[in-house]
Amino acid sequence: MKFFEANFDGLVGPTHNYAGLSVGNVASLSNAKNTSSPRQAAKQGLSKMKALHDLGLVQGVLAPQERPDTYTLRRLGFTGTDTQVIEKAAKLAPAVFKAVCSASSMWTANAATISPSADTADGKIHFTPANLTNKFHRSLEPVTTGKILQAMFRSTSHFAHHTHLPDNDHFGDEGAANHTRLCSQYGKTGVELFVFGRYAFDSTKPAPTRYPARHTLEACEAVARLHGLNQDQVVYMQQNPDVIDQGVFHNDVIAVGNQNVLFYHQQAFVDSKNKLAELQRKFGNDQELHLIEVKTDEVSVEQAIKTYLFNTQVITLPNGEMAIIAPTECRDNPTVHSYLQQLTSRGTPIKQVHYYDVKQSMQNGGGPACLRLRVVLSEQEQAAVNQHVIMNDNLFADLNQWVDKHYRDELSEADLADPQLLVESRTALDELTQLLDLGSVYQFQQSK
Ligand code: SUG
Q: Domain locations in the chain?
């Protein structure tokens, strides 16, 4: 049976904007109030999806969420028609209003944590949507994320869906952005590496002081339990608090793995030496594991954050070679560019680098790896996935047309309060659920 890794990228939603909502995420804060282009953002994302499909990978699409989230505004006491709710919230609670407009569900690395069937006790693929409790705008995502994932992965004989962890900072869970699976082959049992920022129940342990640690050890342990993972195949590593304080708000800003490769920065983890030895032991001391450590004097943490060197996708091509999918920011930075050029000839499985322009997403702190959710599938499991979400030439053309029809070219902060934007977004999403055969996953579709 053939196994492979599929990527499910977030389709950028019609309200994509820059609102400076993510303290600790340098790009989000520095681009606050800039005008965005939802159309360009969606098309940049679609082009990356199509490029991976053209490289021979299985590529899927994950639908965006409904924004502005008028249901949350009603929970917060705003009343009247949808137009009145929007107008009152924009005037009386502008910060709350900006948060309920965010298209942040586009970064699907934060949608969920997924364990493939080779790792789980019951042999099913397990999904746990991330609760994203640390940021109000992102904490609005998990319920709809769960519905969308269930509409994509429907078969109960292959897929097991869990409810997101309790909505509290003690169980702060940012999903696959802090989770990497290492394996010799996709179909063989792997080692699941969970990375956390702090201990929820022990304040004597190291923790960042300037920026928040969004993800806790206790959340990682809960997800490993829910997924039925064997503890001999799990490693928990703490992110270095100093790098969180420099703006590394998720581990995928400083490390990325694929199969038998872990590509990471020297400063990424606490107690690196011992933890990497544990990783090698659990991976199998006789198995080849490529630990590619980038030293601070090769690329500084600051340069890594600016260029998103580690928010790259390391993918396995159909010929077995690995390629790095990097943002153009890496090509445009001489130090990072020359690092990547020499990396392809260093005798590791990484042999190619491809650069893509995802600037609209980068300006909110989301690189290529943030935009994708990985699912390891067998051919049989793939056949059980909703085929309408799988990228091909027709879907690419249909989605581009759909974006052209419904998305605005520009969106400023003031435009978010235009009640027409809600009408446009709902019309677009209603049509999208038909294109992707998702059924009624949005709240506005339930009250129709
Ligand atoms: O959660 N930015 C997202 C970026 C997520 C990136 N994901 C990964 N690293 N996997 C975040 O900070 C900014 C929204 C705004 O400011 O408008 C935002 O939510």
A: 3-67+102-446
Helix/strand/coil percentages in the chain, nearest 5:
40, 20, 40
Domain 3-67+102-446 falls in which CATH fold?
Answer: L-arginine/glycine Amidinotransferase; Chain A (3.75.10)
Please tell me the predicted confidence (pLDDT) of residue 439: 97
Give 336-360 pLDDT, tens digit per residue.
999 999 999 999 999 999 999 999 9
250 is catalytic: yes
- Round the CA-based radius of gyration of the chain to a whole number and report it: 21
Q: Which amino acid is at 434?
A: Q
Quick one: which atom of ligand 1 is closest to the CA of 18?
17
Beta bridge partners of 120: 229
| Rounded distance between C-alpha atoms, residue 114 and residue 126, angstroms | 6
Single pTM value for the model: 0.98
Indicate the average pLDDT of the chain. Answer: 98
Residue 148: partners with Cβ closer than 8 Å, 6 or more residues away: 62, 63, 438, 441
Token output for 191: 């080692």
Q: CA nearest 444: which of 66, 99, 103?
A: 66
For β-strands 234-238 and 255-258, DSSP reports them as unpaired
DSSP three-state, residue 85: helix
Q: Closest Cα to residue 88, out of 99, 98, 101, 97?
A: 97
Q: What are phi and psi of 274, to 5 degrees?
A: -65, -40
- The number of the ligand 1 atom at minimal distance from the alpha carbon of 135 is 1
Which residue do the tokens 């709350």 mark?
96
- Burial bucket for residue 121 (CB in 10 Å: 0-12, 13-18, 19+): exposed
Angle between the N-to-C axes of helices 419-435 and 393-406, in degrees from 0 to 180, rounded to the nearest 10:
160
Instruction: Tell me if 107 CB under 6 Å of ligand 1.
Output: yes
**Which residues are CB-neighbours of 190 under 8 A, at least 6 positions away?**
116, 118, 119, 181, 182, 183, 184, 233
The secondary structure of 334-386 as a DSSP string is: HHHHHHHHHHTTSSSSEEEEEEE--HHHHTTT--TTTTEEEEEEEHHHHHTS-
Beta strands in 234-346 (DSSP E): 234-238, 255-258, 261-265, 290-294, 313-316, 322-327
In short, whether 138's Cβ falls inside 6 Å of ligand 1 is yes
Ligand 1 pocket member 364 (CB < 6 A): yes
